[in-house]
Amino acid sequence: MNEQLSNRINSLPISETLAMAAKARELKAEGKDIISLSLGEPDFNTPDFIKNAAKQAIDDNYNSYTPVDGYLELKQAICNKFKRDNNLEYNPNQVVVSTGAKQSIANVAMVLLNPGDEVLLPAPYWVSYSAITILAEASFKEIPSTIETNFKITPQQLEAAITPKTKLIFFNSPNNPSGTIYSEQEFRALAKVLEKHPNIYIISDEIYEHINYGDPVFSFAKIESMYNRTITINGVAKAFAMTGWRIGYIGAPEWIAKACTKMQGQITSGANCIAQRATITALEAPVSKIQYMVDEFKNRRNMVLELLGEIDGFELNVPGGAFYVFPNVSGFFGKEFKGIKINTAADFSMFLLNEANIATVSGEAFGAPNCIRISYAASEAQLREAINRIKKVVS
Ligand code: GLU
Question: Is domain 63-285 classified as CATH 3.40.640.10?
Answer without folding.
Answer: yes
